[in-house]
Protein backbone atom coordinates (compact mmCIF):
# COMPACT_ATOMS: atom_id res chain seq x y z
CA UNK A 1 0.00 0.00 0.00
CA UNK A 2 1.40 3.42 -0.97
CA UNK A 3 2.24 6.09 1.61
CA UNK A 4 -0.36 8.43 0.06
CA UNK A 5 -3.11 5.82 0.46
CA UNK A 6 -2.09 5.12 4.03
CA UNK A 7 -2.20 8.88 4.78
CA UNK A 8 -5.72 9.01 3.39
CA UNK A 9 -6.97 6.31 5.78
CA UNK A 10 -8.90 7.51 8.81
CA UNK A 11 -7.07 7.33 12.13
CA UNK A 12 -9.55 4.97 13.76
CA UNK A 13 -11.72 2.47 11.89
CA UNK A 14 -15.10 1.57 13.20
CA UNK A 15 -16.99 -1.54 12.40
CA UNK A 16 -20.34 -2.15 14.04
CA UNK A 17 -21.26 -5.81 14.36
CA UNK A 18 -24.14 -7.00 16.53
CA UNK A 19 -24.23 -3.64 18.25
CA UNK A 20 -20.55 -3.80 19.34
CA UNK A 21 -17.78 -1.35 18.52
CA UNK A 22 -14.31 -2.54 17.47
CA UNK A 23 -11.24 -0.33 17.03
CA UNK A 24 -8.27 -1.03 14.83
CA UNK A 25 -5.05 0.92 14.15
CA UNK A 26 -4.51 3.19 11.17
CA UNK A 27 -5.20 1.37 7.90
CA UNK A 28 -6.67 -1.73 9.58
CA UNK A 29 -10.22 -3.06 9.53
CA UNK A 30 -11.63 -5.47 12.17
CA UNK A 31 -12.24 -9.11 11.17
CA UNK A 32 -14.85 -10.79 13.35
CA UNK A 33 -16.37 -14.21 13.84
CA UNK A 34 -19.61 -14.64 15.77
CA UNK A 35 -19.32 -11.12 17.10
CA UNK A 36 -15.78 -11.53 18.34
CA UNK A 37 -12.72 -9.70 17.05
CA UNK A 38 -10.30 -12.12 15.36
CA UNK A 39 -7.76 -9.69 13.93
CA UNK A 40 -7.34 -6.34 12.22
CA UNK A 41 -6.50 -6.53 8.55
CA UNK A 42 -5.43 -3.80 6.14
CA UNK A 43 -8.22 -1.91 4.40
CA UNK A 44 -7.65 -2.11 0.65
CA UNK A 45 -11.09 -1.18 -0.58
CA UNK A 46 -14.61 -0.93 0.70
CA UNK A 47 -16.77 -4.03 0.21
CA UNK A 48 -19.40 -3.93 -2.50
CA UNK A 49 -22.63 -2.09 -1.54
CA UNK A 50 -20.99 -0.67 1.58
CA UNK A 51 -21.42 2.95 2.65
CA UNK A 52 -18.62 5.15 3.97
CA UNK A 53 -19.19 7.55 6.85
CA UNK A 54 -17.66 11.03 7.02
CA UNK A 55 -15.20 11.66 9.81
CA UNK A 56 -14.19 14.78 11.69
CA UNK A 57 -11.86 16.20 9.06
CA UNK A 58 -11.82 13.77 6.11
CA UNK A 59 -13.86 11.00 4.49
CA UNK A 60 -13.26 7.80 6.40
CA UNK A 61 -12.34 4.64 4.52
CA UNK A 62 -13.87 2.57 7.32
CA UNK A 63 -17.07 1.11 5.92
CA UNK A 64 -20.07 -0.79 7.21
CA UNK A 65 -21.51 -3.47 5.01
CA UNK A 66 -25.23 -3.15 4.56
CA UNK A 67 -25.50 0.32 6.12
CA UNK A 68 -28.95 1.75 5.25
CA UNK A 69 -27.74 5.35 4.81
CA UNK A 70 -24.72 7.59 4.96
CA UNK A 71 -23.73 9.28 8.19
CA UNK A 72 -20.88 10.81 10.18
CA UNK A 73 -18.09 9.65 12.45
CA UNK A 74 -17.45 12.06 15.33
CA UNK A 75 -15.11 11.32 18.23
CA UNK A 76 -14.87 7.65 17.12
CA UNK A 77 -18.65 7.18 17.03
CA UNK A 78 -20.94 6.77 14.03
CA UNK A 79 -24.14 8.80 13.58
CA UNK A 80 -26.73 8.78 10.81
CA UNK A 81 -27.76 11.94 9.00
CA UNK A 82 -30.12 14.17 10.99
CA UNK A 83 -28.97 12.84 14.37
CA UNK A 84 -28.26 15.45 17.07
CA UNK A 85 -26.18 14.80 20.17
CA UNK A 86 -24.29 16.61 22.91
CA UNK A 87 -20.69 17.38 22.05
CA UNK A 88 -18.47 15.32 24.37
CA UNK A 89 -15.66 17.80 23.78
CA UNK A 90 -17.75 20.79 24.88
CA UNK A 91 -21.02 20.13 26.68
CA UNK A 92 -22.28 23.58 25.69
CA UNK A 93 -22.40 22.53 22.03
CA UNK A 94 -25.09 20.51 20.29
CA UNK A 95 -23.82 18.55 17.28
CA UNK A 96 -25.81 17.52 14.22
CA UNK A 97 -24.75 14.94 11.62
CA UNK A 98 -25.52 16.23 8.13
CA UNK A 99 -24.16 15.86 4.59
CA UNK A 100 -20.71 17.37 4.56
CA UNK A 101 -19.84 16.48 8.14
CA UNK A 102 -20.76 17.15 11.75
CA UNK A 103 -21.71 20.68 12.79
CA UNK A 104 -21.33 21.60 16.48
CA UNK A 105 -22.42 24.90 18.00
CA UNK A 106 -24.00 26.35 21.12
CA UNK A 107 -27.67 27.32 20.85
CA UNK A 108 -27.60 30.76 22.48
CA UNK A 109 -30.16 33.59 22.26
CA UNK A 110 -29.25 36.83 20.51
CA UNK A 111 -28.29 39.56 22.98
CA UNK A 112 -29.08 43.27 22.72
CA UNK A 113 -26.30 44.73 24.81
CA UNK A 114 -23.01 46.35 23.95
CA UNK A 115 -20.48 44.14 25.78
CA UNK A 116 -21.89 40.71 26.74
CA UNK A 117 -19.99 38.58 29.26
CA UNK A 118 -19.72 34.81 29.81
CA UNK A 119 -20.08 33.69 33.42
CA UNK A 120 -18.15 30.72 34.78
CA UNK A 121 -20.10 27.49 34.34
CA UNK A 122 -22.54 29.02 31.85
CA UNK A 123 -22.68 28.02 28.20
CA UNK A 124 -24.07 31.24 26.75
CA UNK A 125 -22.92 34.84 27.22
CA UNK A 126 -25.25 37.22 29.06
CA UNK A 127 -25.66 40.98 29.28
CA UNK A 128 -23.93 42.54 32.30
CA UNK A 129 -26.20 43.65 35.12
CA UNK A 130 -27.07 47.32 34.73
CA UNK A 131 -26.20 49.66 37.60
CA UNK A 132 -29.01 51.12 39.68
CA UNK A 133 -28.58 54.77 38.86
CA UNK A 134 -27.33 57.05 36.10
CA UNK A 135 -23.79 57.64 34.93
CA UNK A 136 -22.74 60.74 33.02
CA UNK A 137 -19.20 61.88 32.26
CA UNK A 138 -17.79 59.28 34.66
CA UNK A 139 -19.99 60.31 37.61
CA UNK A 140 -22.76 58.02 38.93
CA UNK A 141 -25.95 59.51 40.39
CA UNK A 142 -28.55 57.70 42.51
CA UNK A 143 -32.21 57.44 41.54
CA UNK A 144 -33.91 60.79 42.16
CA UNK A 145 -30.70 62.82 42.23
CA UNK A 146 -30.49 65.96 40.08
CA UNK A 147 -27.44 67.22 38.22
CA UNK A 148 -26.44 69.74 35.53
CA UNK A 149 -24.35 68.45 32.59
CA UNK A 150 -23.94 72.07 31.50
CA UNK A 151 -25.23 75.52 32.42
CA UNK A 152 -28.35 75.17 30.26
CA UNK A 153 -29.41 71.58 31.13
CA UNK A 154 -31.13 70.25 34.27
CA UNK A 155 -31.30 66.45 34.67
CA UNK A 156 -32.90 64.04 37.12
CA UNK A 157 -31.80 60.41 37.41
CA UNK A 158 -34.80 58.10 37.01
CA UNK A 159 -35.23 54.34 37.26
CA UNK A 160 -36.04 52.28 34.19
CA UNK A 161 -34.03 54.28 31.66
CA UNK A 162 -31.21 53.02 29.45
CA UNK A 163 -27.98 54.04 31.27
CA UNK A 164 -25.95 54.25 28.05
CA UNK A 165 -28.13 57.05 26.65
CA UNK A 166 -27.09 60.66 26.06
CA UNK A 167 -27.37 61.67 29.72
CA UNK A 168 -26.87 58.26 31.34
CA UNK A 169 -30.52 57.30 31.77
CA UNK A 170 -31.70 60.61 33.19
CA UNK A 171 -34.51 62.83 31.97
CA UNK A 172 -33.24 66.29 31.10
CA UNK A 173 -34.71 69.68 30.26
CA UNK A 174 -32.80 72.29 28.28
CA UNK A 175 -33.41 75.91 29.24
CA UNK A 176 -34.53 78.32 26.51
CA UNK A 177 -33.05 81.80 26.62
CA UNK A 178 -35.11 84.99 26.22
CA UNK A 179 -34.20 87.53 23.59
CA UNK A 180 -31.86 90.28 24.73
CA UNK A 181 -32.12 93.84 23.49
CA UNK A 182 -28.65 95.32 23.48
CA UNK A 183 -25.78 95.72 21.06
CA UNK A 184 -23.26 93.41 22.76
CA UNK A 185 -24.85 90.86 25.11
CA UNK A 186 -22.50 89.09 27.51
CA UNK A 187 -22.52 85.57 28.97
CA UNK A 188 -20.56 84.32 31.97
CA UNK A 189 -19.15 80.74 31.81
CA UNK A 190 -21.45 79.71 34.68
CA UNK A 191 -24.52 81.25 33.03
CA UNK A 192 -26.74 79.69 30.38
CA UNK A 193 -28.21 82.81 28.79
CA UNK A 194 -26.54 86.01 27.62
CA UNK A 195 -27.55 89.27 29.32
CA UNK A 196 -27.07 92.93 28.56
CA UNK A 197 -24.12 94.43 30.43
CA UNK A 198 -24.85 96.98 33.13
CA UNK A 199 -24.63 100.49 31.74
CA UNK A 200 -21.85 102.70 33.09
CA UNK A 201 -23.34 106.15 33.63
CA UNK A 202 -21.12 109.15 32.99
CA UNK A 203 -21.19 112.26 35.21
CA UNK A 204 -23.50 113.96 32.72
CA UNK A 205 -26.05 111.16 33.19
CA UNK A 206 -25.50 109.34 29.86
CA UNK A 207 -24.08 105.81 29.53
CA UNK A 208 -20.59 105.35 28.11
CA UNK A 209 -20.58 105.89 24.35
CA UNK A 210 -23.43 108.41 24.43
CA UNK A 211 -23.18 112.21 24.10
CA UNK A 212 -25.18 114.46 26.41
CA UNK A 213 -26.95 117.65 25.39
CA UNK A 214 -29.61 119.45 27.44
CA UNK A 215 -30.92 116.35 29.21
CA UNK A 216 -30.85 114.11 26.13
CA UNK A 217 -28.33 111.36 25.32
CA UNK A 218 -27.34 111.03 21.65
CA UNK A 219 -25.37 108.41 19.74
CA UNK A 220 -24.36 108.36 16.09
CA UNK A 221 -24.37 104.89 14.47
CA UNK A 222 -22.65 103.91 11.24
CA UNK A 223 -24.06 100.43 10.51
CA UNK A 224 -22.26 97.78 8.45
CA UNK A 225 -25.33 97.31 6.26
CA UNK A 226 -27.84 99.84 5.05
CA UNK A 227 -31.23 99.76 6.78
CA UNK A 228 -34.64 101.40 6.54
CA UNK A 229 -35.85 104.00 9.02
CA UNK A 230 -37.95 101.42 10.90
CA UNK A 231 -35.02 99.00 11.25
CA UNK A 232 -32.77 101.85 12.40
CA UNK A 233 -35.33 102.62 15.11
CA UNK A 234 -35.15 98.98 16.28
CA UNK A 235 -31.36 99.16 16.38
CA UNK A 236 -31.62 102.22 18.61
CA UNK A 237 -33.82 100.32 21.09
CA UNK A 238 -31.18 97.56 21.20
CA UNK A 239 -28.55 100.07 22.23
CA UNK A 240 -30.71 101.38 25.08
CA UNK A 241 -34.16 100.29 26.16
CA UNK A 242 -35.52 103.85 25.90
CA UNK A 243 -33.65 104.93 22.78
CA UNK A 244 -35.34 105.75 19.45
CA UNK A 245 -34.35 107.65 16.33
CA UNK A 246 -33.41 111.15 17.43
CA UNK A 247 -36.23 113.70 17.43
CA UNK A 248 -35.14 117.37 17.41
CA UNK A 249 -36.73 119.42 20.21
CA UNK A 250 -35.23 122.83 19.35
CA UNK A 251 -32.74 124.65 17.17
CA UNK A 252 -29.85 124.23 19.62
CA UNK A 253 -30.32 120.45 19.61
CA UNK A 254 -30.53 120.57 15.83
CA UNK A 255 -27.21 122.45 15.71
CA UNK A 256 -25.66 120.03 18.25
CA UNK A 257 -26.49 117.05 16.03
CA UNK A 258 -25.27 118.83 12.91
CA UNK A 259 -22.00 119.96 14.50
CA UNK A 260 -21.28 116.63 16.24
CA UNK A 261 -22.26 114.03 13.67
CA UNK A 262 -22.76 115.45 10.18
CA UNK A 263 -20.10 115.29 7.49
CA UNK A 264 -20.13 116.28 3.87
CA UNK A 265 -21.16 112.80 2.75
CA UNK A 266 -23.37 111.14 5.39
CA UNK A 267 -27.19 111.05 5.47
CA UNK A 268 -28.23 109.79 8.93
CA UNK A 269 -31.85 108.87 9.66
CA UNK A 270 -33.58 111.07 12.27
CA UNK A 271 -37.17 111.32 13.52
CA UNK A 272 -38.77 114.43 11.98
CA UNK A 273 -42.32 113.26 12.80
CA UNK A 274 -41.87 113.86 16.54
CA UNK A 275 -39.53 116.87 16.23
CA UNK A 276 -40.53 120.31 17.51
CA UNK A 277 -37.95 121.96 15.30
CA UNK A 278 -38.10 121.22 11.57
CA UNK A 279 -35.29 122.78 9.58
CA UNK A 280 -36.45 121.54 6.19
CA UNK A 281 -34.45 122.11 3.05
CA UNK A 282 -36.11 123.96 0.17
CA UNK A 283 -39.02 122.05 -1.45
CA UNK A 284 -39.19 119.69 1.53
CA UNK A 285 -40.96 117.78 2.90
CA UNK A 286 -42.23 116.11 -0.26
CA UNK A 287 -45.56 114.31 -0.52
CA UNK A 288 -45.57 110.59 0.34
CA UNK A 289 -42.11 110.83 1.91
CA UNK A 290 -42.78 110.40 5.62
CA UNK A 291 -39.25 109.66 6.84
CA UNK A 292 -36.30 112.02 6.99
CA UNK A 293 -32.51 112.32 6.98
CA UNK A 294 -30.15 115.15 7.87
CA UNK A 295 -27.75 116.39 5.22
CA UNK A 296 -25.56 119.49 5.24
CA UNK A 297 -27.43 120.94 8.24
CA UNK A 298 -30.86 120.50 6.63
CA UNK A 299 -33.73 118.01 6.89
CA UNK A 300 -34.70 116.12 3.76
CA UNK A 301 -37.79 113.94 3.43
CA UNK A 302 -37.23 110.37 2.23
CA UNK A 303 -39.41 107.37 1.36
CA UNK A 304 -39.42 105.11 4.42
CA UNK A 305 -38.32 102.08 2.39
CA UNK A 306 -35.05 103.78 1.40
CA UNK A 307 -31.98 102.33 3.10
CA UNK A 308 -29.16 104.23 4.78
CA UNK A 309 -26.16 103.05 6.77
CA UNK A 310 -26.14 105.92 9.30
CA UNK A 311 -28.67 107.04 11.93
CA UNK A 312 -28.80 109.04 15.16
CA UNK A 313 -30.32 107.53 18.33
CA UNK A 314 -31.48 109.46 21.39
CA UNK A 315 -33.27 109.11 24.73
CA UNK A 316 -34.16 111.52 27.50
CA UNK A 317 -32.26 111.22 30.78
TrEMBL record:
<dbReference type="Pfam" id="PF23334">
    <property type="entry name" value="VWC2L_2nd"/>
</dbReference>
<dbReference type="GO" id="GO:0005886">
    <property type="term" value="C:plasma membrane"/>
</dbReference>
<dbReference type="InterPro" id="IPR016186">
    <property type="entry name" value="C-type_lectin-like/link_sf"/>
</dbReference>
<dbReference type="InterPro" id="IPR006150">
    <property type="entry name" value="Cys_repeat_1"/>
</dbReference>
<dbReference type="InterPro" id="IPR052624">
    <property type="entry name" value="CRIM1"/>
</dbReference>
<dbReference type="InterPro" id="IPR001304">
    <property type="entry name" value="C-type_lectin-like"/>
</dbReference>
<dbReference type="InterPro" id="IPR001007">
    <property type="entry name" value="VWF_dom"/>
</dbReference>
<protein>
    <submittedName>
        <fullName>Uncharacterized protein</fullName>
    </submittedName>
</protein>
<dbReference type="InterPro" id="IPR016187">
    <property type="entry name" value="CTDL_fold"/>
</dbReference>
